[in-house]
Amino acid sequence: MTAPPPASPLPPHHAAALLRHFADLREGTHGGAATTREAKEELFAEAAALLDPPARQALGEIDAHLLLGTGDLVATGVRHTPDGVEARWTLTWPEQREADVPPLALLAHYGTAFHHPHLRGVTVGEWPLNVFTAEQAAAELPTLRAILAADLHNLVFRLDYRVVPASR
């Protein structure tokens, strides 16, 4: 049996993100300082803008490799909804539209009853959204990929593998 590799002195991204999340819960803040809904919504808007490049990258990879370039990506930017504020990145394609099933989507949202923002897919979620720098947003790429892979798997399970062009 081999020994595990030595631990890094710094926590990996996912652990650091959770530590930021837990600190906010402990302190009643978001981003270590924001306490009002207005201030938290401002941080959410900044996080959504920072998350845009990795969200587009993750959806673009699905489109290129699994949908064979047939997808259409739409990003809403931050918008107010009856449930709070959200930013949504959606990927549709012909087979999905013909089957009349939900598209793949990444949803950053800050619900009116929430302490802070979250990130989710169409069928999977919730992840705390504690992104305050471009580096932190880029480090979310594996999470975004996992959300999309799980959602696409669930879509195939619901329908059939043929909804994914590369699988035929």
TrEMBL record:
This is Uncharacterized protein. It comes from Streptomyces johnsoniae.
